[in-house]
Amino acid sequence: MRALRGAGLRAPLSVAWLISWCSVIAGPPGEKMTAAAGSCIMLPGLDQLQGVSLMQWKFSEQYLVIYHVNNSSFPDVVDQDRFLFQKSNGSLQICRLKVNDSGIYTLIINMKKQNERSIQLEVVEPVSQPELWSNLSLIGLSTELVCSTSVEKVAKYQWKKDGKPLPIESHYQLSQNNSVLLILNTTWSDKGSYSCNVSNEVNWHEVSLELPVQQYRKRIWMLLPVGICMIAYVVTGFFIFKSSS
Ligand SMILES: *[C@@H]1O[C@H](CO)[C@@H](O)[C@H](O)[C@H]1NC(C)=O
Ligand SMILES: *[C@@H]1O[C@H](CO)[C@@H](O)[C@H](O)[C@H]1NC(C)=O
Ligand SMILES: *[C@@H]1O[C@H](CO)[C@@H](O)[C@H](O)[C@H]1NC(C)=O
Ligand SMILES: *[C@@H]1O[C@H](CO)[C@@H](O)[C@H](O)[C@H]1NC(C)=O
Ligand SMILES: *[C@@H]1O[C@H](CO)[C@@H](O)[C@H](O)[C@H]1NC(C)=O
Ligand SMILES: *[C@@H]1O[C@H](CO)[C@@H](O)[C@H](O)[C@H]1NC(C)=O
Ligand SMILES: *[C@@H]1O[C@H](CO)[C@@H](O)[C@H](O)[C@H]1NC(C)=O
Ligand SMILES: *[C@@H]1O[C@H](CO)[C@@H](O)[C@H](O)[C@H]1NC(C)=O
User: Fold this and answer.
1) pLDDT of amino acid 71
2) What backbone torsions phi and psi does residue 230 show, to the nearest 5 degrees?
3) What gap in Å lies between CA 54 and CA 63, rounded to an integer?
4) Residue 226 CA, ligand 5 centroid: distance in Å
5) How far apart are alpha carbons 48 and 53 in whole angstroms?
6) Which of 35-44, 166-175, 190-199, 227-236 has the lowest average pLDDT?
């Protein structure tokens, strides 16, 4: 907004309010903007071009765009594929954003330092669809639920049980930045649907899992027929071996 200070003072109050409101939509001056990798973003230019003869967009030490307003020459754009410069207002659209496009972009007017307008852009990798799995949940033992995603920059893991936020109690223990949920001393009431919401500045994904709860003893009983069969198999094999030798 620094570049517009002169004009803003002269403008009527309502117009000044409108300009400030517009700049909130575009992001306040000296502003920060966040965008998802792969998407496009519009870095705002100026509200009016009166008295502007040269516009330059700079990223770090590199000039992205050089445009002489009085000159009929086309703007000099470093990468026509990804950068779209609007002559009408000086805005710069950047497409197919990469994480390393993050940094400070400066619009310089008439090569004057006091007319610079800077925008800090952060490009964030969107979170991928997470996976949710648990180990066997047995009554009286701990059950571990793990929510995992391939992207490192996860802002938040939020857990729900049966559609409601998990109550804060010692029965539930969250670790590894909340990506792992440990249910201590599992009970029948822990049966249900668990969901994990993974989010960052640019998007979110939710994944759910139906958690069954089993009695420990039941598993032993289930193994019994298998055990009997195995013993019978070994014994029969032994006799067959003995009678054939
Ligand atoms: C600049 O002009 C372009 C094309 O006319 C428009 O899409 C964009 O919204 C304008 N940006 C600002 C900040 O006024
Ligand atoms: C650019 O053109 C405007 C009028 O269109 C004029 O007032 C100004 O002096 C010119 N600037 C340069 C650097 O030629
Ligand atoms: C117009 O722009 C071209 C290329 O950027 C430059 O060589 C030329 O000197 C400019 N002319 C004026 C009058 O500024
Ligand atoms: C940014 O990353 C791309 C690949 O994603 C690479 O080709 C390019 O060289 C990198 N640029 C810089 C300045 O590191
Ligand atoms: C599930 O994982 C937790 C934590 O690693 C462990 O304490 C518990 O014994 C495991 N349960 C089973 C049935 O393996
Ligand atoms: C937890 O988050 C911090 C900061 O985002 C990160 O550096 C760290 O690697 C994360 N740890 C795990 C276990 O995900
Ligand atoms: C586990 O829960 C049962 C039933 O709620 C309770 O009787 C038992 O004391 C608990 N065990 C531990 C180690 O907290
Ligand atoms: C997931 O979390 C994000 C960020 O907190 C939120 O905006 C979104 O509504 C949540 N999704 C669901 C289904 O709760």
Assistant:
1) 80
2) -65, -40
3) 13
4) 24
5) 12
6) 227-236
Q: Is any ligand 7 atom within 6 A of the Cβ of residue 185? A: yes
| Higher-scoring residue by pLDDT: 243, 182 | 182
**Phi/psi-derived region of residue 18, left when phi > 0, alpha when psi is between -120 and 50, beta in every other case:** alpha
Residue the block writes with tokens 């991928």:
128
Residue 29 scores a pLDDT above 70: no
How many angstroms does the Cα of residue 140 sit away from the middle of ligand 7? Answer: 7
Whether pLDDT at 191 is above 80: yes
For the segment 86-112, what is each residue's pLDDT rounded down to a tens digit?
Answer: 988 999 999 999 999 999 999 999 988
**Could you tell me the pTM of the whole model?**
0.67
- What is the predicted pLDDT for the residue at 218? 52
| Residue having the nearest C-alpha atom to atom 10 of ligand 7 | 185
Assign 10 a pLDDT band (cuts: 50, 70, 90): very low
Contact 56, 108 (CB under 8 A): yes
73 lines ligand 4 (CB under 6 A): no
How far does residue 182's CA lie from ligand 5's centre (Å)?
A: 9
Which residues, 6 or more positions from 159, have their beta carbon under 8 angstroms from its beta carbon? 147, 165, 166, 172, 174, 178, 181, 194, 195, 196, 197
